[in-house]
Write a structure and sequence with these properties.
Elements (H helix, E strand, L loop, with lengths): L44 E5 L2 E4 L4 E3 L3 H4 L8 H13 L11 H13 L13 H18 L20
Amino acid sequence: MNSPAQSSSQPRVPSSPRNPSSPRNPSPIWPPYAHLKSQRPAPRVVGGEGPYFHLESGEWLLDATCSWWCMIHGYRHPRLVHAIQRQADELCHVMLGGLTHDPADRLARELVRVTPDGLNHVFYSDSGSVGMEVAMKMAVQYHRLCGKPDKHRMLSLMKAYHGDT
């Protein structure tokens, strides 16, 4: 039995840079919020400049959501490209699970410096959903440490956006 992603009866040809996805050779990507059977092929982005995507078709598309709020400064900003290249040449990524590194420490110190007194620690998160979850857990833990373990209920707004998960 075929899975929904393998429902095509035509043979599949592996994709490669010389053999991109097409109606006969669909991409194996399952886009967020998409139905596998009714989703049309997505436009292929081949570059970006400022706030625009450059599409394979030659068209330019305004990235009005900033790639889900991750590219607020746009694409190919020379100062950012240079900073990323410099950092990647030294160290691309270090998880903060029991480790640290100078750029994370410098940013945390600057954030503490510009925030009100009493906000003396920084917790880094990779998404808004994780940030919300951690904030909730921190609030519950705070009340436990203050001797109020029964204070654990949360308030949320119905139909409000609290992240994707």
